Amino acid sequence: ARDAVIVVLIFYSMFSVIRNVAWRNSCVLWSEMAEHYPDNALAHSNLASWFGHSGLVDKAISEYKIALRLDPDYAEDYNSLGRCYYEKGMLDDAIREFKRALIIDPDWTDPYINLGAAFGKKGLYQNAIRCLTEAIKINPRNVAAYNNLGITYAKMEDREAARKAWEKALEITPKYKEAQDNLEKLKQQGH
Known about the structure:
The N and C termini lie far apart (84 Å). The protein has eleven helices and no strands. Helix 2 packs antiparallel against helix 3 (41-53), helix 5 (75-87) runs parallel beside helix 7 and helix 10 runs antiparallel to helix 11. The chain has helices at 2-22, 26-36, 41-53, 57-70, 75-87, 91-104, 109-121, 125-138, 143-155, 159-172, 177-188. Helices cover 80% and strands 0% of the residues.
């Protein structure tokens, strides 16, 4: 009986070692999950996230598309897919995905902020302001929305509105570095 217990312990120990090797990082874990369970949207979504954070944007896009085909009601994946397109400079595609995220979850601020950035990058400043203002309506303490609003106003050369937006961000979070830096640049320009 004792030998049988030892054999079982050795078997389970070897199995644990094999699993630990296979799951040594998120990429391997989610790749295996997606391979063994190809209809698991979460596995593809997490693998896409890992690819995106690792700078493998094309692979991330591919996995987000699979995840969304499997679960078309997951707003986070549309938003993340939009960020990938934004990173590649595919602004129209990014805008489309951010809008899809908002159809599913209209009270989520991230897609509004991302839409604002995409519209701003296209020079569609009034659209950007509308999106960022909507994010602020949803969450009046969203410092990223105020910071991006300031950036948009600065691009429009409305330095006073930019200053107010960055000051509001710093009123909420006094050590918010991006707003501090933007406000400092504005002051150096003599405004």
